[in-house]
Records
---
Amino acid sequence: MSGYSFDFFYVLNGFSRLLQGLIVSLELTAIVVGIGTFSGFVLALATSSRSLFLSVPTRLFVEIFRCTPALIQIVWFFYCLPVLADVFWPPFTMGVIALTLNLTAFNSEAYRAAIQAIPAAQRDASIALGLSRWHQAIHVVFPQVLRIASPVLVSNSISLFQQSSLVAIVSVEDLMYQGKLLAVQTYRPIETFTIVALIYFGLSFPISQLVGRIERYNARLLA
Amino acid sequence: MVSGSRQIPAAPGPASSVADAGGAGSAGQSAEGEDRLPATQPFVEIRNLRKSYARGAIPVLKGVGDTMSKTDRLVILGPSGGGKSTLLRCVMGLETIDSGAITLDGRNYIECLSNGRTFVDRTVQRQVGMVFQHYTLFPHLTVLGNLILAPVKRNGEKKGAAIARAEALLSRFGLISKLKSYPSQLSGGQKQRVAIARALMLEPKLMLFDEVTSALDPELIAEVESMISELAEGGMPMMIVTHDMGFAKNIATKVLFCADGVVMESGDPETFFAAPKIKRTRDFLASILRGTKV
């Protein structure tokens, strides 16, 4: 044993600041997951399109966001976008943009597989019922792929919640950011980061346990 | 006109009002329907239909042409791979075609244009309803949800009105207790009957049935076939692809024998089943009677 003696007193004194940061993290996650769950579907429709004008650029987009670190994406949007596009938005907004695009790319891959799992006969039936392609996508395909892809979507969303900690680097005052401050101020980084980790775990773990239940529910409905 | 109605009396005029068509229709009224549509203008006309897959490498329909009148129930028979289902899918507008045209009630609604593209007139296409071999109910919607989806979303019908129509239709076909069930909770026969009801919600002028009982357990076939027969009694013009010869004999007013992508023989069912003109038809019927596949 290292002989380190834990002392949580100062850290727990600053616990309200961690909670403030947590609220920012949750806001960020909620916005990004809310948008990314739908935009991922739209992107999946585009990447599976027969039109090359649609499928090639959108697939390129997906690969760029899948094959670069989320940290770089956040930093790039925070430092490079203002210079290139002359826009100056608050760090929170930049974080939302970067993470939304990231989650959209990952979710679109989950949706793409789910779309392929829908029997082609349903497309025929939709045409026979005179549904437009838009109505078909929204009322027939989306509700089903949302269920089929939900295990992956939930785990993508949990990952997103973890990755939201990266926005601390561009000074969004989230849980990680407040944790870093507290660690420096209390000289108790081990205690602080342990608690921060426990908060991330405590929120993520129950949700990850939902995945199994969702799978069983869907198996019954879509049988 | 090749043949009029047989056992089942024909419809009075257009069969658009499906919901109350059940008790209507007596033999005397069939003349009126024929007055409106003179023999020179068939209800459905298929002209020189050609269709192939893989850019012409696999021809499926090699110049199919035939007609049906408003009082007809056209049954399409033939060996597997002969183009029966493809023909029906073309009439529904689900397939692109290589040449030819299809007319409904005098309107050209599917046509191969000079640039090779397939033109489909959506407003006419919407007057055609189709039920498929494999269950195509939307699994995430209840029976009611399946029935009202297209009327509400596509036609902008008021939800309340659509629900009332759906309930009337389900009551008529003995499915009202399944209103709130999901497709996964239904038997195969019930699924197909709901699929038929779903198509009827759009009040089609022509119904297409593509082997709707082929995937069913034998004991479930009768309920689906009797529902189709009930529609026939109400005067619904229909095209049916089936392997069930008993059902075909009962319901057909006209039979089309399709093999190798062409119509080999077409005519009234008495002649077709009793005295087929060509050897291919005789072989087919003989093999069906022996219970083997062609």
---
Amino acid sequence: MAITLKINGNTKTVTAPEGTPLLWVLRDHLGMTGTKFGCGVAQCGACTVHVDGTPIRSCITAHEDVEDTEIVTIEGANGKVTEAIRSAWEELAVPQCGYCQAGQIMSATALLETNKNPTDEDIDAAMTGNICRCATYVRIRKAIKEAAKTV
Amino acid sequence: MFMHLAKPLAPQPNLKTLQISNLSRRGFIRGTTGFTLGLSLVACTQNKPETLAQDASPIPDNSNVDVGPLVLISIAADGRTQITNPRSEMGQQVITTVAQMIADELDVPWDDLVIKQAVGDKKYGDQNTDGSTSVRNHFTRFRMAGASMRQMLTQAAANQWDVDISECSSELGVITHSSGKTLTYGDVAEAAGKLDVPAEDDVTLKPRSEWRYIGKDKPSYTISDVIRGKGTFGIDVKVPDMLYAVIAHPPTLFGKVKSLDDTAALAVPGVTQVIKMKEPEGEAPSFQQLGGVAVIGTDTWAAIQGREALEIDWDAGPNASYNSKAYAKELAATARKTGENKLKRGDVAAALKSSAKTISADYYAAHLSQSPMEPPAATARWDGDTVECWACTQNPQAARSTVAQICGVPEENVTVHVTLLGGGFGRKSKPDYVVEAALIAREVGKPVKVTWTREDDVQHGYFHAVSAQHMQGGLDAYGNVTAVLHRTVFPSINSTFGPAVQGSDFELSLGATDNPWDVPNMAVEVGKAKSHIRIGWLRSVANVYHVFANQSFAAELAHAAEIDQKDFLIDLIGPDRQIDFSKDGVTYPNYGASIEEHPVDTKRLKAVLNKAAAMAKWGRDVPKGHGLGIAVHRSFLSYVATAIEVAVDSDGNITFPGIWCAVDAGTVVSPDNTKSQMEGGTLFGISNALYGEITATNGVVDQVNFPDWRVMRMAESPHVFETHIMESDAPPGGVGEPGTPPAAPALANAIFAATGQRLRSMPLLGQNDRLDMSKVGEG
């Protein structure tokens, strides 16, 4: 069944079997590979995107369930907060392999959108669903605080 | 059967043989945008070499020009400098680091660089990005490439001006004559390409004081892409007309499909085909495909759903008896018996007997999974008998040769493009998944991408070896160590490639036979252990379990002697000296490096230990429930000491108020990146130590995905992490792995300091990721 999705402000019509997760619609049907597959069971956060401003795990979200929502992926995330986060990420050389960083940035953006001055505990709570096997956590925490200063 | 890399970190080709020896060959390619210069670095034997055009570059192949087999640099008429990076990028910023080494000697503006990724080809020399080798093994080679090119360009300008080269200088892509006239590198690229490559002895490398990029922090070449979701990882590859595959791998190693019903799978929307995989041959898994059943579909999800719907009856095969719990007991029992001696100094038995005090301890470390965030993935496209592969591989040459071998085509027919790697940690040194893609794509007749799901990765990997160690030590009345016995038992990585049932000298040299303690009587012994799952490299390899045991044991000896752990360790290492392990009968590969260039230097070892202790303010009073621990080790030619402060609450939850790390990696090319690697390497080690455990029941791995294969998360990470890089002019050591070995014992020592509980079995945490507080105070 054809489903119309609004992704990064653009309307996309997708024909995929019911139940196909948004992750695979993005990656395989639309060629938007910035959103990553890490576990498929909402345990690692690599697939994080925003649906109406809320971070969700696209690997367990059926694409038909997000029709009529505003979906934002790493490719389209470009607000003031995301750009502040990107600057801090570059300034502190946060990424190593970079694979999880799209998800990290989407989670960090959602945090700073609702909490302009997060504590360590706030950061832990918001970010602990995003695994980084390179363990860039110390720099992520520092960079979120840096970004918060400039927003 | 094919055998690969029985000694994965065995001596690399001598650097000198890889340097410029091609005096008569010419490196000259006519391009669409101007002339480019290719530099040959080893003697050419191919008549029709690959050129830059073979890769992603738009520069066309000019087959009648012999560019030589090892092309790293090309310069266009407009001055753009293209560097071909032969090493795999997996987060260690190797693209940037290689460019720093080459561009420094070439002396070109950083912003003019274009960096291209090499395909897997022997012409690039060693490409196996493993063993923390990219800088330590290639530092001279990459700089020589840049310096030779610079000299040829300068010579070309001198020729054009009809002056002697000694009257010319070059800087940042511009050659200047003493009269003041100038030419750019681009102006003379064509002419330089017609010159002979200078002999190695005729090329002078810059003095350290003139380094422009080496030792400076340059921005990562990939960061801008990865923070925008733009970088292409192996799992992101898409080629026209491509299908997607996942594989139902046999639950046990060398298990086979007894019967298959794919009716339901084929009924899943989007599933196009189900095929039985070719079974692996022989008795060693090597880099072969695992067998099983592949499901192909129009997207990854369809293939995953199809796999769920398969009805397969498996023949569990020869490894179905593997139960890791029983195996752990066997290992421990073996470790308590005399094994084959691999280091012998003095008379340990007699010395232990006459010691004032003796202690012994048994250590255990579970199997681990590398679990890079990007699981293995590869894409293959056949055209007749030739195949093009795209993969996140640490070892593209092995991918190429293994695909050729298993598919029965000549190696020249196989191209392996290297994508970005979403982490590697040793898993992606093994190209089994590239073979799978090639086999499936050929059978399907269309390009196919194979994706390993996380379940595949956790259950069917090349696991880090499980290990049991037994240690005994003797102390005299003054607290001096009189004797040490270290017995180690683990299934060898060599079992993946052949019938090995005992740890190799190479693995023993990682933390066991390279013991630097100044003890008059010492023995290292190894026992036998057959493997039942694939065993492979994981960041820092056998150092993980060996250093956990002996750096924990050093602290136990200190405790028994009632001496401060750090002071005791300094004394244990003993006087400043360079250690010759061969005196004690040790076969010591020294990570493939010459022992003259890279001696085992106790002065450097003690220096990092003292530094880390000073950073942690060792000896200070810590709050109740806190404890400081420390450990030190030389690995991959670098010296790292790590001090950890833990805080343990009354429920047994552990947090990290601070971690301090001192590293002596000799000459450092990329300082901030070295710090990043220390952070990552240390936390990788702590994650494994706290939570890491892969177990198996009846040959089947029990863990399935991240919920039960546990790794460190943000909330568990330290709040302070400081790294100090020791100033050194010594040749470079590795930085990707050396941070890992001291992490686990420093942690165990810190937990002991905080709670009095000596943990000797990894994972250290029990139920609910907490310490068992009922044992607090037990030594």
